[in-house]
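Example for tutorial group B:
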């Protein structure tokens, strides 16, 4: 049961990354924004090539993102503002735990709304994939999960230390 849960989480994470970078590109933010090369760069470019998305599919994803942007962008701005409030509290020299908890609660609520929007976008984007692309996506997810398992194993055991 846990293994399937991790598979779904991994698949969702990869599609979330793809959509998240597409959203940031369309919003004109981040290093992969259209001002720095556009749709084909970064993880979205990887998926575009790895899944061999057609021009029509790319256009559909752009439209999905454009449709969701009016909802998603203000949430991203709010989350950034909450983060900034936390940084101001941390660096103010007058840390108050209750104030930090209030900011964390706000940021958590906003982040949950962002995740819901990302899930909506991911679901719509996934639906435009062909069965072959969905198979390829699943294979990429398996590779990603294997990499993550190795990474987590390394994190748990730590780097090997040379004998003295």
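The residue assignment follows.
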């Amino acid at each position: 049961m846990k293994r399937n849960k991790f598979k779904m989480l991994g698949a969702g994470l990869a599609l979330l990354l793809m959509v998240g970078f597409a959203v940031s590109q369309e919003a004109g933010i981040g290093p992969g924004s259209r001002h720095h090369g556009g749709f084909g760069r970064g993880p979205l470019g990887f998926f575009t090539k790895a899944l061999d998305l057609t021009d029509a599919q790319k256009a559909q994803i752009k439209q999905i993102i454009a449709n969701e942007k009016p909802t998603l962008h203000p949430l991203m701005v709010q989350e950034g503002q909450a983060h900034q409030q936390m940084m101001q509290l941390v660096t103010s020299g007058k840390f108050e735990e209750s104030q930090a908890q209030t900011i964390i609660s706000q940021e958590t609520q906003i982040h949950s709304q962002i995740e819901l929007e990302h899930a909506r976008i991911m679901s719509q984007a996934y639906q435009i994939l062909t069965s072959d692309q969905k198979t390829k996506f699943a294979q990429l997810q398996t590779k990603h999960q294997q990499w993550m398992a190795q990474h987590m194993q390394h994190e748990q055991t730590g780097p090997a230390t040379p004998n003295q």
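Residues 55-91 form the longest helix (37 residues). Compare this with the pattern of hydrophobic and polar residues in the output above.
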